[in-house]
Amino acid sequence: MSWQLTEEHLTDLARGAAVLGTGGGGDPYVGRLLVQQAIREFGPITVLDPSEVDDEALVIPTAQMGAPTVVHEKIPSGEEPVTALRALESHLGARASATMPIECGGINSMIPLVVAARTGLPVVDADGMGRAFPELQMETFGVYGVTGSPMAVAGERGETAVIDAGTDNARMEWLARGVTIRLGGVAHIAEYSMSGADVKRTAIPRTLTLAHTVGRAIREARERNADPVAHLGEVLKGTLYGNLRVLFRGKVSDVERRTEAGFARGRAAAVSFDGEHKLDLEFQNENLVALVDGEVRCVVPDLVCVLDAEQAEPITTESLRYGQRITVVGISTPDLMRTPEALAVFGPKAFGLPHDFRPVEELN
């Protein structure tokens, strides 16, 4: 069932998208403000259930690309992703029927909403990652046969480039990353153009609705002085993300972060409140693996989410700081993301991690 997204949805939606973004996907505050401005100027946004998209419709996902650390210094105007969409439409010789997120994330669940508001297009309630990943080939779209090329890249000064790497989505990522670096470390993109039938076959469904549900669950638990993490776990039981496990509670003791090759890479460590246990996180834009006392407790593609210990507000990797009191949870991904084909593209080995994938519900 389609629904109208208004300003009233945005705070919960941004919070929930940041949780599902596993530390990446961009700044939720910036994303919320961009959509708020667009709705105030152009009106509410139609969110389409994937089942309602015509099989022959042309759907063009839109997103931001680059290192999240750079976005703090290069806040977009909102025009950039529309420019990317129009450039790809021109190249294809066809107009989009709808746009869609490529991932869940604080800003990348929001960029398609900005595009939708500014163009009048509906946005499809689905995405290609079910979380956030750092590289463009890491899409369920690509895993199940949709090619990312041709794609369009747009910069803050109106620059555009069209990249066509044929069926090689990893090479498309490599070329687009180089363009993004030369645009200052952040750019906006339109890619993985597909039919409505392909959306139904390859996308993770209803993730915008899920993000709103997650954000609302945390807020409502706080309002009644309940445990927001426990309530979130109960809410997730009825979704494709049915298992939440608390992995660690403690204080951040160290953060090592660097911006290189278009990514925010690094590690973080924390010590439990009783001083008896140690957490180690590794991230590339997003949290990739959580180890407690040297043992893997959650690893990609399952979600490693760092939350504020008191309020359960999500903390992005670029916002991790020494001394923060945190709760780290692991959340299971949908079955579509755990197949051998999917794990080959965005499982632990795809990131060079020396771990095999085991579901979070088995590890905990």
UniProtKB/TrEMBL annotation:
Domain of life the protein comes from: Bacteria
Transmembrane segments: none
Domain S-Me-THD-like C-terminal: 168-360
Pfam families given in the database record: S-Me-THD_C (PF20906), S-Me-THD_N (PF06032)
InterPro entries the UniProt entry points to: S-Me-THD-like_C, S-Me-THD_C_sf, S-Me-THD_N, S-Me-THD_N_sf
Domain spans labelled S-Me-THD N-terminal: 9-164
Protein name per UniProt: DUF917 domain-containing protein
The species this protein was found in: Saccharopolyspora hirsuta
Lineage: Bacteria, Bacillati, Actinomycetota, Actinomycetes, Pseudonocardiales
